[in-house]
């Protein structure tokens, strides 16, 4: 994964949680792209069978909420945040509303970005999911830092903020 550093982001368009088509990285600014297996709002479709027993799936909500709580710090350091999952936009929209996230979640449900960067995935309950990782992308769409593997989802947020501040 660390061989992605200095590689240009692929030219793909993803669907934001509100249905708007967007590029994964924000044009002209530093972008933190964190990839996560899945986030589920209470009262919606719920967790897939075996989710809690699958290594690496725990921590998505904690990671998302930690990014939300540090969003102003990232903005002050000149970066925007975007989360990426293979979930459908409507599933992501339910979680954004539930968690009151101040940043967008993007759907790579057709795996175009995953294929373009050869990102690590796993399959559970018949669906491909991202292994947890984070990319720091510069204003020219060049990947400048990679966090992988991530064993502490919430703690990785401070590490990425240090990358942003130290660039």
Strand order of the largest sheet: 2-1-5-4-3-8-9
Termini gap: 19 Å
For the residues shown, what is the average pLDDT?
Answer: 93
Helix content: 25-40%
What's the SSE pattern?
EEEHHEHEHEEEEH
| DSSP strand content | 15-25%
Question: pLDDT under 50 segments (min length 5)?
Answer: none
Number of helices: 5
Shape: globular
Please tally the β strands and state the result: 9
Mind describing the biggest β-sheet?
7 strands, mixed
Cα radius of gyration in angstroms: 15 Å
Structural class, judged by helices and strands?
Answer: alpha+beta
Question: What attributes does this structure have?
Answer:
167 residues; 9 strands; 23% strand; alpha+beta; 27% helix; two-stranded antiparallel sheet; 5 helices
